[in-house]
Amino acid sequence: MTALEFSNHIQLAAGSLKPVAMNLTRNADDAKDLVQETLLKALSNREKFNAGTNLKAWLYTIMRNTFINNYNKITKRSSNIDSTEYLQYLNTDDSFVTVNKGTAAFVMSDIKAAIARLNEEHRTPFMMYYIGFKYLEIAEELNIPIGTVKNRIHIARKELKKMLQVYGD
C-alpha cells in the first residue's frame, strides 16, 4: 500500500474515531486532540500497519493506548511526589516504623548512610524507583536502556542488603 493510499484510507476511517474519542475523554476539545494525535501516530507509523488487516481496529488500538498513556501521565503529574534530593525521600517520621523511636533513629541513620555509600550510578535509579517511578520512566529520564535500569536497581538492592545485613532475619 502506498503512502497516498494509506493516507486516503486513514481519512475515510477518521470520522468513526470522533465518537469513540468523545466517549473516552468526555470533552469535545480533548476528543479532537485525541483524534488528531491518533491520526498523527498512525501516519508516522505506517510501516507497522499490516495491509489486509482491519485499519479501524488498528486506529482504535492506537487511540485507546494514547488515551491511557495520556491519562497515566496526568495522574503521575498530579500525584504528590516530592522532588527534593534523594535522602529526603526516606521517611524521617519514625513513629510508624517501630514503637521504640531510639531504635528507629539508629535504623534510619544506618539506611541513609548505606544509601549514601552506593555508587551514584546505582543510587540514582534506586531512589527514583523508591519514590514511585516506573522502570521505563527512569530509563527515559536518565537516557539509559531499561535493562540497565533494572540491573542497577538490582545491584543497589544487593549492596544495601549486604551493608544492612545486621538487620536481616
Key words describing this protein structure:
mainly alpha, Rna Polymerase Sigma Factor, Chain: A, Arc Repressor Mutant, subunit A, 2 domains
Task: Walk me through what this model shows.
By secondary structure, this protein is mainly α. The chain has two domains: 3-78, Orthogonal Bundle (Rna Polymerase Sigma Factor, Chain: A), CATH 1.10.1740; 86-167, Arc Repressor Mutant, subunit A. Helices cover 70% and strands 0% of the residues. It has helices at residues 3-25, 28-44, 55-78, 101-117, 120-131, 135-142, 146-163. Helix 1 packs across helix 3 (55-78) and helix 6 (135-142) crosses helix 7. The mean pLDDT is 84.
Write the layout of secondary structure elements.
Elements: H1 3-25, H2 28-44, H3 55-78, H4 101-117, H5 120-131, H6 135-142, H7 146-163
Helix pairs in contact: 1-2, 1-3, 2-3, 5-7, 6-7
Summarize the structure.
The protein has 169 residues and is mainly α. It is built from seven helices and no strands.
